[in-house]
Design brief:
The two termini are 14 Å apart. 45% of the residues are buried. Helix 3 packs across helix 12 and helix 7 packs across helix 8. This protein has a domain of 351 residues: Rossmann fold (3-Layer(aba) Sandwich). The strands form nine sheets. It has an eight-stranded mixed β-sheet, sandwiched between helices. Strands 3, 4, 5, 6 and 7 form a five-stranded antiparallel β-sheet that branches. The longest helix is centred in the N-terminal third of the chain and has 18 residues. It contains twelve helices and 39 strands. The protein is α+β, with helices and mostly antiparallel strands. Strand 6 and strand 7 form a beta hairpin.
């Protein structure tokens, strides 16, 4: 009954202090002329990071946002205590056995960052701390790190970013002495150990943060050996490794084409071997299986198929199809084990796990208790295993780890995220289908408390880009909204990958407007069906999802009461014209290249910044990070400045929050992130309100 008691005793959100004057950005006209159009950009100067006036304006925006939200401070504190109170602060992940050690990550109460550990031979052995991010974070506001242990377990490689700018340095540590080795590489994007425990392969990025070079280096040597450079600016270079540690793969990848070079980890001095020369529009991703490569490819099948080829002669002439998707299915991924392949197959917005027995070629789908969920393979480092580690969750089911026996088809729960005071049976998830204006069916996922009254306050989220599925996941912090009568909704709009490759194709390039229209049509659907109303609907999106929200607000602001937007990609024309920026050139195949007249017209028609108009907009809270290299801070800053200059209804708050110590992902420490979450929820409650519940 904790959820009900929290709602019953909760503070009602007080009115915001709208008497606080908004910071007004100086207008410095900058004219953009292209394809016969002249556009005056008064806030172009906000891109100049070194200009003291930029920092002064952003700091004033922070002060303004805090002052406007000051009446909600008691509510923010209550929300923070609620959210924190659901979390097991001292906790540990499920141990994973790999090459003689049990590896796990744990947290301690009061410490913001995880501690990575291992035990040799058994769980009763003495703990060895591999990497304590709390120590690495001393004196810093941001820390992000990942690690890899050498095959013999003696050396630790780890990457570290302390700004949020994705500037990762690679360090090495002797685990027997704790000494950090003098080897240290910068601008690293990926790393794999060779089997000799002395050689590493790694990739680095250029000034535009495009991963493009592959190196081999022996620890202790002065100079690395350049093995490959990807010169096409449309491509990034990825580095992955087999589960059985036999091969690594350097994959040149654009938005729609790949080319793979194979590295023999048992013979690190060998040159990389080209698996199959790139062909425009063809993607392929290999992994090894015995004396064969198992390859997922869209060659000849838009929604991907599985082929095998001999390791000795893996080019396309020797590919043999072993699995094609059924109608309406997409093969998203495949993992190879000695006895089984596990194929992730998506159908009707749900990705299931299909297990194939390679001895009998019989197949079955892993059964889960809910109709709409997220399931994927967890950490499974052992190639020769009889059990599979699976991770599962839904919008109302906390993150759960299972061990799965493919022979008996039985799931054994190993761990479920502890959420104090939470009873999943009191909540419900539904997957609905909204009809878009062109007749397409668009999935809309809902989560709500069973006794919530309708129409209800609703937070509608959307993304819709890069073919990335916006799958459900559990957020214990959102229980505070559910227990105040809110509905959490997700519009699975075109441009994402929820319905496969065709869904992505229908929401990019010339078809990008479908993404924004889908969000608008989903909002209307929820209102027409009685789930919510324009006075009760908030909308949210981040990064490319911020573009989706921004375009929808320009076209149909009347449908929304409030908007919560994170690191938004909204200055699309200017960003896509600047090829020195990270991500720009590689994304010409997603949005278009505005230097091409027809493609400029596509982008110009929807770019949120360019299309701000003198009209009413809903209450808005926009967040960005000073060190964001994916979507630079100035996109949010310029957008807010232009909205403040042009919007007609000034009775609604328009807030900008800039975190000067983070980048694209927001706060890295968990307590700081919870504080931000409490602030955002207080904004929603103050601008939309609370719901009500049916009396039994």
């Amino acid at each position: 009954m904790l959820g009900l008691s929290l709602w019953t005793l909760s503070l009602v959100a007080p009115p915001l202090d709208l008497s606080v004057p908004e910071p007004v950005a100086e207008r410095r006209p900058h004219v953009r002329q292209i394809h016969g159009e002249r556009f005056q950009d008064d806030y172009f100067w906000l891109r100049v990071r070194k200009d003291p006036a930029v920092r002064k304006f952003l700091e004033a925006c922070n002060e303004h946002a805090d002052a406007v939200m000051a009446p909600t401070k008691p509510l923010q504190e209550q929300l923070y205590k609620e959210i924190l109170g659901r979390i097991r602060e001292t906790d540990s992940s499920v141990p994973v056995f790999d090459r003689g050690y049990y590896y796990y990550t744990r947290t301690e109460k009061g410490k913001p960052y995880p501690i990575h550990c291992r035990k040799k031979g058994g769980l009763g052995a003495k703990e060895e701390v591999l990497l304590d991010l709390n120590q690495l974070a001393r004196g810093k506001r941001y820390v992000d790190a990942s690690y890899s242990v050498s095959p013999n377990g003696r050396l630790l490689a780890y990457t570290l970013d302390t700004t949020g700018s994705r500037d990762y340095e690679l360090f090495f540590k002797d685990l027997s002495t704790g000494r950090t080795l003098p080897d240290r590489f910068g601008t690293v994007t990926g790393m794999v150990w060779a089997s000799d425990n002395r050689t590493v392969f790694y990739t680095t990025e250029d000034a535009a943060k495009r991963s493009y070079r592959l190196y081999r280096r022996r620890l202790g040597s002065r100079q690395p050996t350049l093995l490959y450079e990807e010169k096409d600016p449309l491509y990034n270079l990825l580095l992955t490794e087999d589960r059985n540690h036999r091969f690594a793969y350097a994959i040149s990848e654009s938005m729609e084409t790949t080319e793979c070079r194979v590295l023999d980890l048992n013979a690190p001095d060998k040159a990389p071997r080209l698996l199959q020369r790139r062909r425009e529009g063809v993607e392929y991703y290999p992994t090894s299986f015995g004396d064969k490569f198992l390859i997922r490819t869209n060659d000849g099948v838009r929604e991907f198929r599985l082929v095998v080829a001999p390791v000795a002669s893996p080019d396309r002439r020797h590919w043999k199809t072993v699995l094609t998707p059924r109608r309406g299915e997409t093969i998203e991924d495949v993992d190879a084990f000695r006895r089984h392949w596990v194929v992730r197959i998506r159908r009707d917005a749900v990705a299931s796990l299909r297990v194939l027995d390679v001895r009998t070629w019989s197949a079955h789908t892993v059964a889960f208790p809910e109709p709409y969920y997220s399931a994927s393979l967890g950490s499974n480092p052992m190639f020769d295993t009889k059990r599979l580690r699976i991770e599962y969750q839904s919008a109302i089911t906390p993150a759960t780890v299972y061990d799965y026996d493919p022979t008996t088809r039985s799931l054994k729960q190993v761990k479920r995220q502890t959420v104090y005071g939470y009873d999943p049976s009191r909540y419900e998830v539904r997957l609905l289908w909204a009809k878009a204006r062109d007749g397409e069916r668009v999935p809309v996922a809902l989560a709500f408390r069973r006794d919530a009254q309708r129409p209800a306050p609703t937070l509608l989220e959307a993304y819709g880009a890069y073919g990335i599925p916006n799958d459900p996941y559990f957020r214990s912090s959102f229980v505070s909204l559910l227990d105040r009568g809110w509905i959490l909704a997700s519009a699975l709009v075109r441009g994402g990958g929820e319905l496969g490759e065709r869904w992505h194709d229908a929401g990019k390039m010339a078809s990008k407007q479908n993404t924004f229209r889908d969000l608008v049509d989903c909002a209307r659907f929820l209102q027409t069906e009685g789930w919510t109303s324009p006075q009760l609907l908030a909308v949210s999106g981040g990064s490319a999802g911020g573009l989706t929200v921004g375009a929808a607000l320009n076209s149909n602001a009347e449908l929304f009461r409030s908007a919560l937007v994170y690191v938004p990609f909204v200055d699309v024309v200017n960003t896509m014209l600047d090829e020195t920026l990270p991500l720009t050139t590689g994304e010409f195949i997603e949005w278009g290249n505005p230097k091409i007249p027809q493609q400029y017209r596509w982008i110009r028609a929807y770019s949120p910044y360019d299309n701000v108009a003198p009209k009413d907009y809903p209450a808005m809270l926009v967040r960005t990070g000073w060190n964001d290299t994916n979507v630079p801070y100035w996109e949010a800053a310029k957008w807010v400045a232009r909205l403040r200059a042009l919007r007609t209804d000034r009775s609604k708050p328009l807030l900008l929050k800039v975190d000067f110590s983070t980048g694209h992902g927001g706060a890295s420490g968990r307590y700081d992130a919870l504080r931000d979450e409490a602030f955002d929820q207080a904004f929603l409650l103050a601008t939309v309100g609370e719901g009500s519940f049916r009396v039994p």
